[in-house]
Structures are given as structure tokens and as C-alpha cells.
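Go through this chain for my students:
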Amino acid sequence: MASDAAYSRPGAVLFACNFNRVRSPMAEALLRRAAHDRIYVDSCGLHLDPRAAEGVDPFVEAVMAELACDLAGHAPKTFDDLQDGSFDLVVSFTPEAQHRAVEMARGRSVEIEYWPIIDPTQAEGSREARLAAYRDVRDHLAARIARRFAVRPQAG
């Protein structure tokens, strides 16, 4: 199997998870920051979480702020809310999002990748322990994005 860096760089990328409040907005912000305007980036989820009006998960907002990525304006959305379905690549983080991505890609020339990323909302313990779990996911995503898209991670 070829390494991540062997893939071509797509022009438009969609990151998908279940609720578009944790992993997919993190990945969207990280790729947008690293690629600037060289790649169109969006994210979505399968469903709207009852807390969707609150935007991203507060722990996501905190760990992304450490990198000077402001996600306060992120509004969670679903596949059905996307303005445009013309993506070269869809990266899903859950089996359910992977299934929906495959459905969306039928009849289109779209690459689909599944990145099984741990859900940090399942972390237990103190605030610091939970923040550490979110940082681990953020850092894992940043490294994977840097390899896959041949972009250099940005320091905070």
C-alpha cells in the first residue's frame, strides 16, 4: 500500500463524522490553516446534535485556540446542508459517516478515505484529563493531515 504522501493533493476535501462538533471541525480548521486557499475544505456530520446551536464542543474550541484557530463561528451541519457536493476527497471518522460518504459518492469521481480517529468525548476524568484527550486527537489529526496532504503543520 502506498504511503499517505504518495496520494495526489485534492482540490476540495470534506471531513465527516457523526455530529460535526468535534473531529470534523478540528480537521477542517487544521487543513484550512495548513493549506490556506490551495484546498477548499468543509466538514459535516450525519445528524445535528441537540447542542448544535452551541457550535463546536467547548473542549474543541479550547484546544484549537491553543493553536490560534478560532472555531467560535463554526455552525454544525449535515450532509444534507452542504452547499456543494463536488468534493475530490471525503474523509470520514466513523463507520456511519463512511457509509454515508460512499452513498454520496455514487456515480461521482470521489475518493473516500476512512480515518478511524478516537472520539475524545468518551474521555473521563478531570478537566485536564479530558483536555489532554482532545489535544491527542488534535495532534493526531494534524500529523495525519500533514502526511496526507503534503502540508506543513502550522505552529501556534
